[in-house]
Amino acid sequence: MAFRPQRALHILSLTATSHRVNLSEQIPRFLAGAAMVVRADAAKLPQLFEVAGLFIAGSSLALMVIPLAWHNGYAVWWAKRIPPMAVRAIAPFSVIGGMGLVWAAW
């Protein structure tokens, strides 16, 4: 995101282009969310970890059942509207968020 924002936006536009692509995105995402729920009691912030896990798992299930055209259309809509500089600007927050998840799970 920080180094190739145009590429990140292109990848976003490819979201849910087929059932195979959609499932390859959503199944690991669902499993990660479910793992967060299971692991919540051992996390440093158990309630937040559980809520985040439920949101991730639940939204993944929703994205697996809605029509692909809706999911892909939404992704393409955003990919066309988010300026590359905005993608670059939010990249550090994505890294910090990921590091925060690792810290909370540890």
Key features?
about 110 residues, mainly alpha, 5 helices, flat
Structure description:
By secondary structure, the protein is mostly helical. The chain has one domain. The chain has 5 helices and no strands. The longest helix has 22 residues. The radius of gyration is 15 Å and the shape is flat. The two termini are 26 Å apart. The model has no long low-confidence stretch (mean pLDDT 96).
Can you lay out the helices and strands and say which pair or pack?
Elements: H1 5-13, H2 19-39, H3 46-65, H4 68-81, H5 84-105
The helix/strand series, from N terminus to C terminus, equals: HHHHH
**What is the gyration radius calculated from CA atoms?**
15 Å
> What gap, in angstroms, lies between the N and C termini?
26 Å
Global morphology: flat
The fraction of residues assigned to DSSP E strands is under 5%
> What is the structural class?
mainly alpha
Specify the helix fraction band: over 70%
Domain count: 1
Unreliable parts: none
Number of helices: 5
In total, the number of strands is 0
Largest sheet: none
What would the average pLDDT be, to the nearest integer?
96
